[in-house]
Amino acid sequence: MRRASGFPAITCRGVASILIPREGWVMKDKRVLIVGGVACGGKAAARLMRVDPRADVTVLEKGEYISYAGCGLPYYVGGVVKEYRDLMTTPIGVVRDENFFRKVKHVTVHTQHLATRLDRRKKIVTALDLRNGEEKEFPYDKLVLSTGASPLRPPIPGSDLPRVFTLWNMPDALAMRAAIDSGKVKNAVVIGAGLIGMEVVEALHDQGIQVSIVDLCETPLPQMMDREFGNLLRAVLEKKGINFFGGEKVLEIQGCNGEIKSVKTDKREVPAEMVLMAVGVRPNVGIAREAGLALGSCGGVIVDDHMRTSDPDIYAGGDCVEVKNVLTGKPVWQPMGSVANRQGRVIADNIAGLPTTFKGVAGTAIMKAFEYTIGKTGLTREQARLEGFDAEAVTIVDSDTPHFMPGSAAIQVRIVADRKTRKVLGAQVFGAGRADKRLDILVSAAAGGLTIDELADADIAYAPPYSTALDPVTHAANTLKNKLDGLMVSWSPSELAEKIRKGENPVLLDVRSPDEVKAQGTLPYETTLIPLGQLWDRGSELPRDREIIAFCKISVRGWDANSILRRLGYEKVSVLEGGIAGWPFELRKE
Ligand SMILES: Cc1cc2nc3c(=O)[nH]c(=O)nc-3n(C[C@H](O)[C@H](O)[C@H](O)COP(=O)(O)OP(=O)(O)OC[C@H]3O[C@@H](n4cnc5c(N)ncnc54)[C@H](O)[C@@H]3O)c2cc1C
């Protein structure tokens, strides 16, 4: 066994301070060892070299590649990113490899080195050099565990066939790309409709491959979005000719002569020459567990606000740790690159003596689905209620820029707030318009503890190319204020569907024009059409003993209809949130 590190000479503890620096070297006497060299580890190493001149940093990475953009892998698979190397270069095109880290950052990187043991008493990590089987010891003063997570591979019969993939690292992406380039893949099945699965769906579809998705849940992104928003995405998939088989279980991947032929579910057989298993990931905590570091209820390493583990000389970050949800105060596991990078920076600062803290996550995620954006932050109303909040929510549909601007497109915003404190608890966005910037405003509101009133009052930037005079976020916040203040009663599409299912018999008052109804379709129930302009005159046609739920294309005229009906003496009036544009279920064509 050999003892090694980034020091220019033997690095037993205690002798480091008497080493004579080589030319160009700064004297360094704090050995920082980082296990895992992609997102969190790469960021921690780079930041350390900026803020701690005494740190002698060594990175152990079991793979061949370091510091690459894992989140970009689907875009390489889909051909948007042409060269895999582009995922590992700096903005000026320099590849971030061992040489780059040594020369530019003064960080020693050992790729293909698998850390196998951690001796906390001796402060030594043992690693296996995967190229030759040699065992080496790496002493440290401060250790960073950034070992990430691993994709689950359920023991489905046939999952060992060639072209059954997971997409987690660069070799996975290279293998998928090669399979696509072979021209043998005409049909692909993606098992699991989470973020990674859904990103790959688009990547495969764009290569002309017929894609089918199978998930145990009824709608896509089941862990991330509620059913309504999941259904909106499902409709997008269907429009693109992608099969979504929700509520189905994969039983077997069937093959013939070593080639995949189909995927058998409990309901059907789907042709496939390629399968992606994207059914979830779990944190890599083997070394931490064996070394006796405290693990939490979500399975990740427990860290404090400074990203320190139960051992004060060991930090951990990225997918291998669990963190606090800032809205509930409870531990959560949020394996995201955004989080891993922020944590890497916090770890480096703390090792350098800068007492930076990581407060937690709001639970933010975003995804591109063709020309649509879908994202969320914080809690859904149902999650918030389960957490004990008196949560209320509203959904609105609006344009991202004024209708007179070219390219103006619709977005849907759902905001959740607590009735008692009026604090924003979460939000979801969806649409072909610029939903991402709205989500980021809502992240700041939820994570920053803003009330719905403060959000409604936010001085959001406006000029016609960027926004409407009242931004969709302001519109949503004002609508939720109306609801919390008792000025408006409204129902989400799911709530309306549930009312009908339970046998309630509201009047569904459509205040659009007949032409709009023809062009846009209508609700799959009995509706009453009175265009808004005729409502003052014809309102009395409506029964007084039934609830009247008004709607239009986006329900702004529906809200006006409520005011007219109240003036006409109707008391039980309400609005269908989002109107026809926000209806996530099937519409009836007139
Ligand atoms: C296809 C895909 C798309 C994604 N898209 C997004 C996105 O859009 N937005 C987002 O926020 N996140 C996204 N993510 C998630 C994001 O990539 C991860 O959350 C992030 O990379 C985690 O960083 P990390 O440093 O904890 O782990 P990683 O970046 O996975 O790095 C961990 C490294 O540790 C190494 N390692 C593990 N054990 C050992 C050991 N014992 N010895 C040596 N080395 C070891 C591994 O080889 C690995 O390279 C995506 C992930 C994938 C796979």
Secondary structure elements and their pairing?
Elements: E1 2-3, E2 30-35, H1 39-51, E3 55-61, H2 73-77, H3 98-105, E4 108-111, E5 113-119, E6 124-129, E7 134-139, E8 142-145, E9 149-151, E10 164-165, H4 170-181, E11 187-191, H5 195-205, E12 210-215, H6 227-239, E13 243-246, E14 250-256, E15 259-265, E16 269-271, E17 274-277, E18 281-283, H7 286-290, E19 301-302, E20 314-316, E21 321-324, E22 331-332, H8 337-351, E23 365-369, E24 372-378, H9 381-386, E25 391-399, E26 410-418, E27 424-431, H10 436-447, H11 452-456, H12 472-484, E28 490-491, H13 493-501, E29 507-510, H14 514-520, E30 528-529, H15 535-538, E31 548-551, H16 556-567, E32 573-576
Parallel strand pairs: 1-7, 2-3, 2-8, 3-4, 8-20, 10-17, 11-12, 11-17, 12-13, 19-21, 28-32, 29-30, 29-31, 31-32
Antiparallel strand pairs: 5-6, 6-7, 9-18, 14-15, 15-16, 21-22, 23-24, 24-27, 25-26, 26-27
Describe the structure.
Helices cover 25% and strands 26% of the residues. Helix 1 (39-51) runs parallel beside helix 8. The model is unreliable at 5-24 (pLDDT under 50). The protein has 590 residues and is of the alpha/beta class. The longest helix has 15 residues, at 337-351. Bound molecules: flavin-adenine dinucleotide. Flavin-adenine dinucleotide binds at residues 35-36, 38-41, 60-63, 70-71, 73-74, 114-115, 146-148, 167-168, 196, 284, 287, 318-320, 335-338, 340.
